[in-house]
Specification:
mainly alpha, 2 domains, 11 helices, globular
């Protein structure tokens, strides 16, 4: 019986791999992508990067200006994430099957999460750009809307995983809705909620670079400026600072997760 089950699992795994290969091949044919040609250009591309993207003494002298823009990007990402977390917590409570008030509000909260999440942050930046122009407000709002969609979805799932027995116990004693949420739901979900907020901050710092290119703010703006003027030494410096900042933020987030989980 076990051997038969193992053969079935092996057959299913092989079938999945075949389907993935077929989809990949069809995608390459439809898009006219040549795998061999792409691999052949890799050595030349790597050689160009190593010979052009170099950090020089002259570029290092402009590091303070880069750090100012980097700080602007980081703090904008943190502000967008934290404010979105407050809104998402409210929507998550309304959307969860454990803490929802009624079916209509729950459906509405889930709709907002789905709508804002399924539109990319870059698309939100382009849409908001038409109304607010190129400024930091546009970048903040684009990150905020995208964060609300993602965090609301994850908050709903986290709250749904909470134990319903404690909620029932407090409900039986006649506790108010806010008392139940504060004493029974939030304490159980708090580690997961904080973890998702930290993850969103990391994601928004990466997204803010691309959003900044469109909105003319932060590190993305000076990256685009130096890239268009073909100052590749500055491009290398900016890229290095972005990578270093993202790694540092991720290390801090991982440390905080270990403490709270």
């Amino acid at each position: 019986m076990e051997a038969k089950w193992m053969r079935k699992r092996k057959w299913q795994t092989s079938l999945v791999f075949i389907i993935i290969i077929l989809i990949t091949y069809l995608s390459a044919v439809i898009t006219n992508f040549n795998f061999l040609q792409g691999l052949a250009t890799l050595p030349a591309a790597i050689g160009w990067i190593l010979s052009n993207l170099l950090i020089t003494q002259e570029s290092l002298e402009r590091l303070p200006d880069v750090l100012v823009k980097l700080n602007e990007t980081i703090f904008m990402s943190i502000a967008a994430t934290t404010t979105a977390a407050v809104v998402s917590l409210f929507l998550g409570l309304m959307g969860s099957k454990i803490t929802r008030i009624n079916g209509f509000i729950s459906t509405f909260a889930r709709f907002i999460a789905s709508f804002s999440r399924n539109i990319p942050v870059v698309a939100w930046a382009l849409i908001l750009l038409l109304s607010f122009g190129q400024n930091s407000v546009t970048g903040y709002l684009a990150l905020f809307v995208g964060s609300v969609g993602f965090l609301t979805r994850t908050f709903i799932e986290s709250i749904d995983e909470a134990s319903y027995s404690s909620v029932e116990a407090l409900t039986a004693t006649g506790s108010s809705y806010f008392h139940i949420v504060n004493k029974a739901v939030i304490p159980q979900c708090k580690p997961q909620l904080i973890s998702w907020i930290l993850f969103m901050i990391e994601t928004n710092i990466r997204s803010a670079t691309l959003v900044g290119i469109l909105t003319g703010t932060g590190i993305g703006f000076i990256f685009d400026l130096y890239y268009k003027t073909m100052d590749y030494n500055m491009v290398a410096l900016i890229t290095f600072t972005i990578v270093l900042a993202v790694i540092l933020i991720e290390l801090i987030s991982n440390y905080i997760r270990k403490v709270i989980l």
